[in-house]
Amino acid sequence: MSAIKNVTIVGAAGNLGTSVFSKLVDSGKFNIQVLRRPDSTTQYPAGTKVVDVDFSSVDDLTAALKGQDAAIALFGATSLGLQYGLIDASIKAGVKRFIPSEFGGDVGLPKNRTLLPFIEKGKVQDYLSEKSKSSSLTYTYVYNGPFLDWGIQHNFILDTSDYQPTIYNGGDVVFNTTSLDTIANGVVAVLSHPDETKNRAVYLGDFKVSQNDLLAIAKKVAPNKPWQPKHTTLDEATAEADKRLGQGVVDYHTIAPYLYRSIFDPEHGGNFKHNDNELLGVPKKGQKFIEEVFAKKLA
């Protein structure tokens, strides 16, 4: 496969998008283009090529993607469906590589495809895979587990906001987790290794840890805080989520327990069997990184 040079990013202003955009620019390897909604007020650094486009129009998207070698979708959970049009436009425009909005648990596992946050991702994955069979478009799925630094800072993988973190199923289940920086480096590496990453999933990771491991690090960093962890089960959490969903309430408190199921339930493969950091030349963070993140959070 010929080298990838011209790269389009969609969702470059999000939590992960900001990191991916910066890494791609800083690498100096690519010509970067950002697609943005016409009503967006998001600003990018001077010199960035920004194209305002109607994401409901395949024709508009096709025109914007002409001459592009790769497209990276970094949509939020409520916008995943926009990828179908982006995939169709990528094919019409002759794009070589498409990286969909995965960047979490392994959607290739059947059990994960039954969880609400992954249902649409699975459908997009199937659509992309099928379309690639009759076109020149290739794909790479990037799996990294929960975001490490973001997950600590935003009380997701361990809620330290009141020093009473909720521990699920005993807290000893080991899971794969990756920093935003490492994920972004992984995306750069995928585009730099198009043949090795063609039509497959790549698995990234900085650490394999448990909630209890994270709690121990938090206590080491902040030993004088009034730590009082609370214990619950995934069954209790998802039962409450099912109830909220049945009432038509779809918010963070409804979605999070299903994500926790994908991370803390061994049957959902959160402890990845594979890791492609070495293949891609992406270094892993050390434990000091986690300590530094907690130090900033708990200061």
Q: How would you describe this protein?
A:
The chain is of the alpha/beta class. It folds into 2 domains: 6-143 and 180-203, Rossmann fold (3-Layer(aba) Sandwich), CATH 3.40.50; 148-175 and 207-271 and 284-298, Alpha-Beta Complex (UDP-galactose 4-epimerase, domain 1), CATH 3.90.25. It has 11 helices and 11 strands. The strands form 3 sheets. It has a 7-stranded parallel sheet with strand order 3-2-1-4-5-6-9, with helices on both faces. β1 (6-10), α1 (15-27) and β2 (31-36) form a beta-alpha-beta unit. α1 (15-27) packs across α6, α3 runs parallel beside α4 and α8 runs antiparallel to α9. The chain starts with 5 loop residues before the first strand and ends with a helix. Residues 5-222 form the NmrA-like domain. GO terms for molecular function: oxidoreductase activity. Keywords: NADP, Oxidoreductase.
Cα shape: globular
CATH superfamily of the largest domain: NAD(P)-binding Rossmann-like Domain
Largest sheet: 7 strands, parallel
Calculate Rg over CA atoms.
Answer: 20 Å
The CATH topology of the largest domain turns out to be Rossmann fold
Number of strands: 11
Q: List the total number of helices.
A: 11
Protein name: Oxidoreductase CipA-like
Domain NmrA-like: 5-222
Keywords: NADP, Oxidoreductase
Pfam families: NmrA
